[in-house]
């Protein structure tokens, strides 16, 4: 834990030696302060008030100021400060509203010197004047600041900020009469101690409480502030108005800020909650800390540089009951772990890529950016002390332009305008949306809609669309028996397989020359005339499930064919063709078939396409065994796929069309995220009507209220012309109905239309019908109303 690197700093005639070290405290610390010669540190808290000596290798406890059998609340400290001119003088801010001074030169055990109890609430900060020995300033939760002369028993002046509680007060290092105060309402005030009646200047520094402030030790006009908005801002106070010159964005509320000695642009911060680390920032590079101290395991409550002219040692106290001395050489450098590459998309699809020049080989074919040279190399030349400089950086920026036509979003707008989400049966909605996607050259989306229709529609009620393959079959009778002649005449040109007689197997069962009907044979039981049997077909590679098979029955039964068992139960694999024929006992020779001419030397067979047609137009033998819920997991994955791909339009549209079929399968937060993203896109393209329709059709409570929370309707009484303060139909002032139709004289509780000239109106249909025959107002006011 303890790092052994050492450093010696020359400060005039004295020298500071030390290393990174820590000691355990008896209780959490609220504040720390160091004496003028940097040899001792005082630690104060609710249950601790001790002085430690800073030796070379360790902290040594020197004095416990919390004495007595039952210490009073005066020892419960919120802040502590060691006078930088008088080495025996301390001041503490107590949680009970007391300001206490302590004289370490007293011979008694109790070092308490003076007690001021003028504040009514907790004192948050005490501050000694940097050059005036007896001047002490305090800021309290009661909103007042008080200046004490330690030679007197009462305050000499009181400053009222006319605001909320004071969180910090700091005397200016260069201006004798000026001090700054920060408040919980986000304001910072500058005061002159000679004028307690009114502040000299006030400005809003943060959007929330300002917890701390610190004057720059070298630059007279720089003031650093930190607040709950997670920002550290540096203000130039030398101008007529406070000017923000630097801003650092941190990751948590800023509790303390301290300028680093001898380093003009460096300051240290710690957070009030969440983040336990101490950061040292270079305000010129505010996006990444210059150095980080990560030793504390709980929130850091106090930080102070060990000496006002030594930038190498930082002291800190924490709620984890530890006191640390950090050596700057042991700090972590976040820039060493930072990603040297960056990638960002522009508004119109341009891509910017930044990387180290050493990683980018020279490319002579790279075109310069039209706006000028887009390469921004950043160089930091080597300095004698490398630990005080950021890492050497040399980067190049490349910009890749995107063709606007290739990134056009016209398909999104047209899809949003043409999609149907409600108002028709489910199958028609799917067909319509599939057609829209197909016309916009989006075949995958179109196929998805078609598959949804197949999955969630009743198979017995499927009606092929005009472009469906079944529609090309003509008007085939939906019956359980058919003959080859009807099939050939209905299907038109059919696909045929040319096979020679030598290639046909000798064990095939052929139809009799005079028999044009399809007969069924069962290899287990011999069927008699008039019996009905189920056909068993082998489809080769395109085998179908039992649920998809449909029976084919005879129209007229004749003599049964003699059936010979084949030598093989299944045809050998290498004999299966890419386009297998139908069962071979359905094939006939050209001379025996009544459907072909005697000159044709080919075999008529039933192809898989025709088999599919037969199955599609026949009656199902069994009821479907796969319910719609069986497909829900697949559809859920499909919706997630489209959403992750960026097509949130498809995800939301399917979610609305399927409704309760799929809604329970997707958690509410995911649905709300999809809806919000899609509505945001619609509003960016100014598709207000579509956006409102999506909001109305959604079932998420957080979405349905969107078009209500952003809409405000101010209603005035049509009689007395005063605003309606209640939510009823009766004005609470003139006791008349607010919105009465000028035609039927009834209260309008639905769609209301009124004339902007005379303010009379009524039901939309009534006013429209009235103005068809008369141009004057139906209320009789004589105004010529116009309906557009």
UniProtKB/TrEMBL annotation:
WD repeats, residue ranges: 116-158, 203-245
Top enzyme category: transferase
An annotated GO cellular component: cytosol
Chief localisation class: membrane
Gene Ontology biological-process entries: autophagy; cellular response to amino acid starvation; positive regulation of macroautophagy; positive regulation of TORC1 signaling
Keyword Transferase: yes
Pathway in which this enzyme or protein is active: Protein modification; protein ubiquitination
Family in the record: Belongs to the WD repeat WDR24 family.
Biological function: Catalytic component of the GATOR2 complex, a multiprotein complex that acts as an activator of the amino acid-sensing branch of the mTORC1 signaling pathway. The GATOR2 complex indirectly activates mTORC1 through the inhibition of the GATOR1 subcomplex. GATOR2 probably acts as an E3 ubiquitin-protein ligase toward GATOR1. In the presence of abundant amino acids, the GATOR2 complex mediates ubiquitination of the NPRL2 core component of the GATOR1 complex, leading to GATOR1 inactivation. In the absence of amino acids, GATOR2 is inhibited, activating the GATOR1 complex.
Protein name (database record): GATOR2 complex protein WDR24
Organism: Champsocephalus esox
